């Protein structure tokens, strides 16, 4: 009977593997038309200057409004876009969206405003030959390179060292800035901070979310901020959900923050609305007994 169970398990396993493969194949096919059909959306999550409470930057986060399946998050389809090579077209499209939005916000609300875009390791190689066209596009719009920040994850640094070195050099030669995303979660090597010119580290939300309950995480965050500042880097904390987390990060002089406390990633028109209201996010004084 052990043999029979084993065989059933095997069948079950292959069936579900088959299903997963089918789903991926379907998504890969659908994704081919997604850009053309206008199904991709870029949402923007505001990044707040923690000392003033005002919006200084935003992170561009892509979503796919699938006609049948609803909203699909990037974790699900970016890997498929990479496998199929569609990431090149999608990456260019996201860049153009972000450039249009950053131009509008700089002209209308905040002349230092920046938008950051995420890049996966697969993109480093292709982008090296494409980023020239982005610089041209920025020039055409009258935007300086520094209006765009490129986010790369710490762990992706390890995967493509040669490509990434040239890539980052090109970006920085043209004034763009670079942020090290999900800092603290990869096989961190502090040597990367020395070897690559970087402008920001982004403290991963896993450190931020246990800040008030875990004093070790506060110590780690503080150490990251002190180290970054000594290296002349600025720090962005991600995943801020409570006023407590906000105040603790402010107290250790973390420069910037983003998270659901301030805003979820939102469509461009809602970001403009937030800007137009011009309200600062400032910790509210807690009333006695709260
Ligand atoms: P990431 O760059 O680390 O982005 C931060 C993620 O945290 C986003 O998830 C965001 O919605 C989420 N987040 C923000 N604030 C909070 C909060 O307060 N609490 C919690 N629990 N989550 C928060 P999202 O949009 O699903 O993106 C997931 C990942 O997909 C991103 O992680 C990034 O690595 C990748 N990604 C997103 N857009 C793109 C893109 O245009 N290109 C590439 N290559 N990757 C992208
Ligand atoms: Mg990011
Ligand atoms: Mg991150
Ligand atoms: Mg992430």
TrEMBL record:
Residues 24-279 form the EAL domain. It is found in: Cell membrane. This is PAS domain S-box-containing protein/diguanylate cyclase (GGDEF) domain-containing protein. It comes from Nitrosomonas oligotropha.
């Amino acid at each position: 009977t052990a043999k029979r169970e084993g065989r059933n398990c095997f069948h079950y396993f292959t069936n579900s593997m088959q299903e997963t493969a089918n789903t991926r194949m379907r998504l890969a096919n659908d994704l081919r038309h997604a850009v053309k059909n206008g199904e991709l959306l870029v949402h923007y999550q505001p990044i707040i200057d923690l000392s003033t409470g005002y919006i200084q930057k935003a992170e561009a986060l892509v979503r796919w409004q699938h006609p049948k399946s609803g909203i699909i998050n990037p974790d699900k389809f970016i890997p498929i876009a990479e496998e199929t090579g569609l990431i090149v077209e999608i990456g260019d499209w996201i860049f153009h969206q972000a450039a249009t939005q950053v131009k509008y916000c700089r002209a209308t609300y905040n002349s230092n405003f920046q938008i950051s875009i995420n890049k996966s390791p697969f993109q480093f190689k292709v982008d090296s030959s494409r980023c020239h066209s982005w610089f041209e596009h920025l020039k055409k719009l009258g935007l300086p390179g520094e209006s765009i920040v490129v986010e790369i994850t710490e762990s992706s640094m390890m995967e493509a060292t040669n490509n990434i070195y040239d890539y980052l050099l090109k970006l920085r030669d043209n004034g763009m800035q670079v942020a090290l995303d999900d800092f603290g979660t990869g096989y961190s090597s502090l040597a990367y901070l020395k070897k690559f010119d970087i402008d920001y580290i982004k403290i991963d939300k896993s450190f931020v979310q246990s800040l008030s309950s875990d004093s070790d995480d506060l110590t780690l965050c503080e150490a990251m901020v002190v180290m970054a500042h000594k290296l002349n880097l600025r720090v962005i904390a991600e995943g801020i959900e409570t006023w407590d987390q906000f105040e603790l990060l402010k107290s250790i002089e973390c420069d910037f923050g983003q998270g659901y406390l301030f805003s979820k990633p939102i469509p461009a028109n809602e970001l403009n609305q937030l800007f137009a209201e011009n309200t600062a996010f400032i910790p509210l004084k807690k009333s006695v007994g709260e």
